[in-house]
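Reviewers asked in the last cycle whether our approach scales beyond single polypeptides. To address this, we selected a multi-component target totalling 223 residues and predicted its structure end to end. The input consisted of the following lines:
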Amino acid sequence: SQTIHQWPATLVQPVGSPLSLECTVEGTSNPNLYWYRQAAGRGLQLLFYSVGIGQISSEVPQNLSASRPQDRQFILSSKKLLLSDSGFYLCAWSVRSEQYFGPGTRLTVT
Amino acid sequence: GENVEQHPSTLSVQEGDSAVIKCTYSDSASNYFPWYKQELGKGPQLIIDIRSNVGEKKDQRIAVTLNKTAKHFSLHITETQPEDSAVYFCAASPFGTASKLTFGTGTRLQVTL
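The resulting structure, written as structure tokens, was:
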């Protein structure tokens, strides 16, 4: 069966520090991969999606970037965090249309 | 692009009652409509989905209905239980693309004893 992992589960970072969140998927090949952000009590905002290694589409201009160095690995990065980057970051994968989410990373920027 | 509206934003029902959450979408090309349940501090969980060639789909106590003419779909939960308390999201997508889902804004369901 397929499994999606995200780490870390929680993170507290100061403004201006770098960020690296990692997501890996097991049990499937060539999935579409997604990064979402969810502000407290809000809906899901799609940040990036990828249909293959090295193929990244950005949905929202911001100081975040994404990379897909391997088929089942998706990384979300920032060189300098802003207070507004705080939120719940979710990685998801899909084959065809069904999307499945990871457990999320709670990021607090102080 | 697609726009999905979801109502109500909060819903409180007594245990055993039914709950209905409604969504409308704008893009007539959308033909895949999933529903997710998100418990506090967790990632959303896919609970049921429907495709445009089907008008209704049922799985135990939950059902989804779709009206493509009206661009409207709904989630129905019968015999609600306290463990149904969560935030529910609807979404829409054109099948066969990169599966980009457009989500509604969520409904917080509270099932009271």
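The interface with chain A takes residues 32, 34, 36, 41-46, 49, 89, 93, 95-96, 98-101, 103-106 of chain B (CB under 8 Å). We regard this as preliminary and will revisit it once experimental data from Aim 1 are available.
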